[in-house]
Amino acid sequence: MSVSDTSFRDSRLAFALRQGGGIVLSLAATLLGLLLVTFFIGRVVPIDPVLAVVGERATQAQYDAVREALGLDQPLWKQFGIYVWDALHGDFGQSIRTREPVVDEIRRYFPATLELATLATIFGVIVGVPAGVIAATRPGSLIDQIVRIVGLMGYSMPVFWLGLMGLLLFYGILGWVGGPGQLDAGYQMLMEFELTRHTGMILLDTALNGRWDMFANALSHIVLPAGILGYTSMAYISRMTRSFMMNELGQEYITTARVKGMPEWRVIWVHALKNVMVPLITVVALSYAYLLEGSVLTETIFAWPGLGSYITDALFAADMPAVLGGTVVVGVVFIGLNMLSDILYRLVDPRAK
Amino acid sequence: MSDLLTIRDLRVTFDTETGPVEAVRGVSFRLGRERLGIVGESGSGKTITGRSVLRLIRPPGRIEAAEMTFDGIDLTRISEREMRALRGPRIAMVMQDPKYSLNPVMKVGAQLTEGLRLRDRLGAAEARRKAIEALEAVQIRDPERVMEAYPHELSGGMGQRVMIAMMLIPNPDLLIADEPTSALDVTVQAEVLSILDGLVRDRGMGLIFISHDLRLVARFCDRVLVMYKGRIVEEVAAGELTRAKHPYTQGLLNCLPRIGGSRAPLPGLDRDADWARA
Ligand SMILES: Nc1ncnc2c1ncn2[C@@H]1O[C@H](COP(=O)(O)OP(=O)(O)OP(=O)(O)O)[C@@H](O)[C@H]1O
Ligand SMILES: [Mg+2]
Hints:
The complex is a heterodimer. The longest helix of chain A has 38 residues, at 212-249. By secondary structure, chain A is mainly alpha-helical. Chain A has helices spanning 8-44, 49-54, 60-69, 76-88, 102-137, 142-156, 159-173, 185-194, 202-208, 212-249, 252-259, 264-294, 296-301, 307-316, 320-348. Chain A is globular and about 85 Å long. Chain A has a single domain (102-352), classed as MetI-like (MetI-like fold, Orthogonal Bundle), CATH 1.10.3720. Helices cover 77% and strands 0% of the residues of chain A. Chain B is α/β, with parallel strands linked by helices. In chain B, the strands form 2 sheets. Chain B has a 6-stranded mixed beta sheet, with helices on both faces. In chain B, strands 1, 2, 4, 5 and 6 form a 5-stranded antiparallel beta sheet that branches. In chain B, helix 4 (108-118) packs across helix 5 and helix 5 (124-137) packs across helix 7 (156-168). The longest helix of chain B is centred in the last third of the chain and has 18 residues, at 186-203. Residues 260-266 of chain B have low confidence and may be disordered. Chain A binds chain B through residues 1-3, 8, 250-253, 255-263, 266, 271, 274-275, 277-278, 348-351, and chain B through 51, 54, 56, 58, 84-89, 92-93, 95, 97, 100-106, 114-115, 118-119, 142, 145-146, 149-150, 152-155, 158, 163, 166-167, 170. The complex binds adenosine-5'-triphosphate and magnesium ion.
């Protein structure tokens, strides 16, 4: 009997703890690797960080003072140690452009990206999963063809083109949605004074402030960029769901459920879908991470004040602390999502080792 | 005895890329409230025959039959909806390999009780009680824990017993048992067989017992169908197995090692192309 007599609940807990330890270790290693990479990028680029701070006309004394203040006179390994130490304390230095701590700026920009990507992913899951399931249950049918073609378009059409066309049609011609930016110009001004930024996310903050007029305006602005990002996410998720589902529907346990007389909805949406969830978690996490990092083009087109815009602007201004700080945040988000999907995976798959 | 199941000229064809494959080719038999054995080598069509009765052959498989009648119901005519109503409480099938036939991400308990909850509309506690009873009936000693286990935590023999319990819960009139005891040790096997036996004798259940263990089937069943390449090549009354006339059946019998006998390498049945045509 493989269900042993010693309580296997306990051993499962111990197992989970051991796994948890492993996750923390690999997390630390990945994070260190990430910092190592950004640190060396910072040293390799042909931009003198001291010059960037003091300007071209500084005296040698000023130059040396700043160099010392930045710790650049120290040996490399020590510099790296300081860099890691600071990073762990949320200190990525000062932005060259604004003289503000990079971390404060990221804290301002990141929520906008998070909000956009989250909405897009929710849309991608809510539409993509059922579409994939339905397509898989009727392979070759009209609805399967439609899902396939709509998905294919989401794959192959460049986001910036979709964004421009979307703006032209829905904003320019039809006037159904708000234009670029998070709010109309009038509200944008009001926001500075009348809105307490609890989260930095515009929909949440307007709702929390009870400013439903602003909320509606923000919604009309986010719907198009979120829809376009969500479309690409939906294309990926529906395609993967379809193929996972096809695979599950061919398994023996599906026949067992039918032998028991289970209705078809239950066979598909409970028996099969529970199994589809296992690989799907990774797919959704990947797509989410991709949106959190890769929505630069969308943010640019829609003048969305998010991390993508922030890093791009910093890059063009040769603002290395900002670029590297942003990169670290993106990396951390990616690691975090990976970890989250790992945990969820263990939760839904009892066989996960 | 009135027939519970009548099958006449059952054919199952799989349309594959390399052309149609006939897995079952004109099988006919009748079943009363008795124990009917089906034996045959691997790939002879036993499972496909059993599944056809439930109309659970997936595309690209096709079922054709001159007649398939269960308890006066024409299985070839009724709608999918009516068919679904028969599956479970009227006709059930113990699936061959519990390792693949149980849902890997659902607890055993949930799989045992879902029929009771959904079809019979029982409350959670009542359904659970019945499921535990069913597990106890198949000699599972710690049913509470098995209820909480996932299939991969069960041994092969436990999985088989869970499968049997699951299919017996709705009290079917016809049970198709596909290799139900192959992973059980002798004492548990005897126990499980006596449960099935009791259901046939006392409740008048019909039983189709699929196995490739000819001796077991001969001991346990009333009649035995011998299948080869999608056909029934011989039907024998269980007691008269030794008098089986067909060379394939004799071959199967000779394959079986006898206690004390020489463990001669499996003779590799002499096949005659004519049997498949028959
Ligand atoms: N999906 C399919 N496509 C093509 N051929 C199939 C398919 N499913 C089954 N078959 C064929 O049907 C034949 C009968 O299969 P079946 O599973 O009924 O054999 P079996 O007698 O139950 O064998 P075993 O003792 O190994 O369980 C096999 O030869 C197999 O190749
Ligand atoms: Mg079989």
